[in-house]
Design goal:
heterodimer; A: alpha/beta; Urease, subunit C, domain 1; TIM Barrel; 2 domains; 5-stranded antiparallel β-sheet; 11 helices; 27% helix; globular; B: alpha/beta; Rossmann fold; 5-stranded parallel β-sheet; 4-stranded parallel β-sheet; 39% helix; 13% strand; binds zinc ion
């Protein structure tokens, strides 16, 4: 940032620790918090803009470990540009882009391309996730070291969309990424138990005549992987945990000191398999929507720390791939622009979590898992670290809005919340001190 | 009644209305001129995206007996198999003038999706969707059973239900839309349903369904059922480890000559054998059982036309009031057996 760049004083907002304080952004950094912010702002030189945050929550910029930005390959569904616009509008200052693009992000070349596209877009930091295996084929390791050493500095590796089901390959991947403090993020789905699976397996799938995706297919892989992680002393991250049984297994693993972290999606915190009765493919997702008891277990898991983070699994799809029969429709839902409202609705408004907790699950913990040092710099009790990069999201929790996918910044319209009332709206977002969202609308991208 | 999508969401009143209307239609089929002007000028499209000659010709005969125009559209060799979307296909069919779309589809839920999509305004009749439902098959089975019960009681079938009737459904329940549609409809009509199948072919969560489940067909037959409904079993299922071999399946869950004898001795005196067809003789049903006088297969076929006439009439006549339409002068009615 040049010295003449504007400074921003965010006034009267409620911080995650519950205090009401001003926050000063200067030179791309969080310069001061509390009474000092105003005095320092008034004493300093250069233009000063004030952001009125009275009645709003000032959060650390959100970090998403799990998005699909579709570029390269499916630019008709999303691009890094449109996906990061959606991220910014949702309050995210950093997103991870999964590797299942075309070509697959399994080489230094592709991850650098995605990383570069993210920098050019400028709406939000983009961290490519590297594929674990070449072409996501589950046969041999991709060049994990080359991706880690590339300009994209990949630390999260995943075959998401596919499970690394071969136990030997999984073991080796867990071991190998220790060389650069990486983490393997597993899409836990036993492939043989889920061939042709269309929805959660249970009484409802039997009634609807849709092939079941049994909970055990997720739980069996998680159980195996936590034991592997323990055996080789590696870190494991579990993507989109969706069942109560998985929460129990992860809780057990953490009690034994196994280095496992876990993520849940917003949709698994709110929606249940009952929606499949409509056969509307907007509700088709992988892992599938589960039962009410699973939703409740995930919420409790986030509240007690068993589940570490909420990752959106933002999965944009074109209209053609959703406007068709359920059994052939694409799996996935958009989620970046509704994540924080869903988290507020499911966790804050229910009393399970305060805003310090939201900062933990949506910012500081995912940043720690991905080894990001420029994001999520806030204490467990919700106190901002001054001097850290100014990644800040201002959020109005008091409004209620009806979700209209047509107004979303993502290129795709497959939001499962269409027509639902959800609380809250992101009003302002600062990415490294640059205002990418101002007054509920996209402002300008950050230039590098 | 705008659509017929499933039997699970069919009320008792609507089920009886369809069955009573089918009795009226059946009277027409017994006349020398088997035709009614009821749907003159209306167009019924049979959209069959999965092979089923039997069901298609049954719907075709039904529509023609009601004087409707019929267009047959099958998936093979058409744009559907070349990747045209269902939405484009049905909108095209409606533009051609379809008033009702009778759809057989490989995907569970396709009929419900079509009816709820807003893509078209035509009525939708589910002629079988994936492993979900096949409501007209269940209705024709119910019509067959109801007549059977009425005959036993020496009354007419109109207005009656299946209270107290014991029906055993045998075989591949997991993959059977016929089993599902029958379970919901027969229990709505008051019948007691038992499912007999190997544990691998019993759907998950079946304990929440309104039925008994047994792994022993012998036990189910020894309990003295009024009807045994044999489902078609695909022998390829053994390659997916649902059962070890065709021979073991037949020994345990086939309607063998021994089990036919057991039914003769333990079942109701007039117990019937049902099969949605086509039968796999020697696999789920022995030749003797297939050819037994107890087998209602041909009666089921005839009743299929009457039930489909009733369904087409009711979805296209737009009447939402209860009661049976008076289609046939009472003098022309067959005496009810
Ligand atoms: Zn995944």
């Amino acid at each position: 940032m040049s010295p003449t760049a504007p400074r921003y004083l965010i006034t009267g907002g409620t911080l995650p620790d519950g205090t009401t304080s001003d926050v000063l952004i200067e030179d791309g950094l969080l310069a001061a918090v509390g009474p000092e912010a105003r005095s320092r702002a008034e004493a300093g030189d250069g233009p000063l803009e004030t952001v009125d945050a009275a009645g709003r929550i000032v959060l650390p910029g959100l970090v998403d470990l799990h998005t699909h930005l579709r570029e390269p390959g499916r630019e008709d569904a999303e691009t890094v540009e449109t996906g990061t616009r959606a991220a910014a509008m949702g309050g995210f200052t950093s997103v991870h882009a999964m590797a299942n693009s075309t070509p697959v992000a399994d080489s230094a070349g592709v991850v650098e391309q995605v990383w570069q596209l993210g920098r050019e877009a400028g709406w939000c930091d983009v961290h490519p996730v590297g594929a674990v295996t070449v072409g996501l084929a589950g046969e041999r390791l991709a060049e994990l070291g080359a991706m880690a050493a590339s300009r994209a500095e990949v630390r999260v590796f995943s075959d998401d969309g596919m499970c690394v089901s071969d136990p030997v390959l999984m073991r080796r991947a867990l071991e190998y990424v220790k060389a650069f403090d990486g983490v393997v993020a597993q899409h836990a789905q036993e492939p043989r138990l889920t061939e042709g699976a269309q929805m959660n397996e249970g009484e409802l799938s039997s009634v609807l005549g849709l092939s079941g995706w049994p909970a055990v297919a997720e739980e069996a892989i998680i159980a195996r992987d936590v034991l592997l992680a323990q055996h080789v002393g590696s870190r494991l991250h579990v993507c989109h945990v969706s069942t109560a049984g998985s929460v129990e297994i992860i809780r057990w693993a953490k009690e034994r000191g196994i280095e496992v972290t876990a993520e849940a999606t917003p949709h698994h915190l709110l929606l249940t398999e009952e929606l499949v009765r409509t056969y509307d493919p907007v509700f088709k997702v992988n892992p599938p929507l589960r039962r009410e008891a699973d939703v409740m277990a995930l919420r409790e898991g986030l509240a007690d720390g068993t589940i570490d983070t909420v990752g959106t699994d933002h999965a944009p799809h074109t209209a053609e791939t959703k406007e068709c029969e359920w059994t052939v429709a694409a799996m996935g839902m958009t989620g970046l622009e509704t994540a924080l409202p869903v988290v507020q609705h499911a966790l804050v408004d229910t009393g399970l979590m305060d805003w310090a907790g939201v900062s933990r699950i949506l910012s500081s913990t995912p940043a720690r898992i991905a080894r990001l040092t420029d994001q999520g710099r806030i204490s467990a009790s919700g106190v901002f670290e001054t001097g850290a990069p100014a990644n800040v999201t201002v959020y109005d929790p008091h409004v209620t809005r009806t979700v209209d996918p047509a107004t979303h910044a993502t290129r795709s319209r497959n939001s499962p919340y269409r027509g639902m009332e959800l609380p809250g709206q992101v009003t302002d977002v600062f990415n490294h001190g640059h205002p990418v969202v101002r007054d509920r609308a996209l402002a300008t991208p950050r230039t590098h | 009644m705008k659509h017929l999508l499933s039997t699970q969401d069919l009320s008792l009143a609507d089920a009886l209305r369809i069955l009573d209307t089918a009795e009226e239609m059946s009277a027409v089929s017994g006349r020398e001129v088997k035709k009614l002007p009821a749907l003159r000028g209306r167009t019924v499209v049979n959209l069959f995206l999965e092979d089923s000659t039997r069901t298609r010709i049954s719907f075709e005969a039904a529509a023609k007996r009601l004087s409707a125009d019929v267009i047959n559209f099958t998936g093979k060799g058409t744009s559907v198999s070349k990747g045209e979307s269902l939405k484009d296909t049905v909108q095209t069919l409606e533009a051609i003038g379809a008033d009702a779309i009778v759809m057989r589809h490989w995907g569970s839920g396709a009929a419900a999706q079509l009816a709820g999509s807003g893509w078209i305004t035509s009525s939708v009749v589910n002629a079988g969707d994936g492993t979900h439902e096949h409501p007209t098959q269940a209705l024709l089975d119910a019509l067959t059973l109801r007549r059977h019960l009425a005959r036993r009681h020496g009354t007419g079938p109109r207005g009656t239900d299946l209270a107290g009737m014991k029906v055993v459904i045998v075989g591949d329940i997991l993959h059977s839309r016929v089993a599902r549609s029958n379970l919901w409809l027969l229990t709505t009509l008051g019948a007691e349903v038992t499912l007999a199948a190997p544990p691998t072919l019993v759907p998950v969560g079946v304990e929440q369904w309104p039925c008994h489940v047994t792994y022993s067909l012998d036990e189910a037959i020894a309990a003295g059922p009024d009807a045994v409904m044999m489902l078609r079993v695909q022998s390829e299922r053994m390659h997916e480890a649902f059962f070890p071999s065709a021979a073991e399946y037949t020994r345990s869950w086939g309607l063998t000559d021994d089990r036919l004898a057991l039914l003769e001795s333990a079942g109701a005196a007039d117990a019937v054998i049902m099969h949605p067809g086509p039968m796999n003789r020697g696999l789920e049903i022995s030749a003797a059982a297939a050819d037994s006088v107890r087998n209602t297969a041909l009666e089921q076929v005839a009743n299929g036309v009457s039930v489909r006439m009733a369904v087409l009439y009711l979805v296209l006549s737009g009447t939402d009031t209860a009661g049976t339409p008076d289609l046939v002068p009472s003098a022309a009615r067959r005496p009810e057996a």
